[in-house]
Structures are given as C-alpha cells and as structure tokens.
Amino acid sequence: MTIKKVWLDESEDECIACDLCASAAPDVFEVPEKMVVLPDADLEANEDEIKEAVDSCPTQVIKIEEE
C-alpha cells in the first residue's frame, strides 16, 4: 500500500511536540510548536519512516491514509 495523505488529528489528544516524528522522518515532519507535515514531502519515498513516526508517537495523533 502507498501512503497518500498524512495529517495531525488532535480530536482526542494533542501533539506534545516531543519531536519523535521529526527524528524518524525529518524529510516529512517538522515540529515548530506542534507537528506539521512539510508541504513538499515525498510520502512515497519516506513510507517506512512515516510508519515509524506513526508507531512511535506517544499521543497517536499522526494519521495516514493509504491506497
């Protein structure tokens, strides 16, 4: 499956800006005050790193859509 979309879902919990996502996938995520997905991020080329970021997020607020 290919990742088509990545977003921050704070409907249940909030991003705590721990920076684990940016450590796992620095070409996809940045954490100025809370996680943001870089607009020019190549999701397909960074799939493994994105999945690692999702799995390591302590608040589980990173969501992905796969096709």
TrEMBL record:
Span of domain 4Fe-4S ferredoxin-type: 4-34
Molecular-function GO terms, alphabetical: electron transfer activity; iron ion binding; iron-sulfur cluster binding
Keyword Metal-binding in annotation: yes
Keyword Transport: yes
Keyword list, A-Z: Electron transport, Iron, Iron-sulfur, Metal-binding, Transport
Family annotation (Pfam families): Fer4_13
Function (record text): Ferredoxins are iron-sulfur proteins that transfer electrons in a wide variety of metabolic reactions.
Protein name: Ferredoxin
Lineage, top ranks: Bacteria, Pseudomonadati, Bacteroidota, Bacteroidia, Marinilabiliales
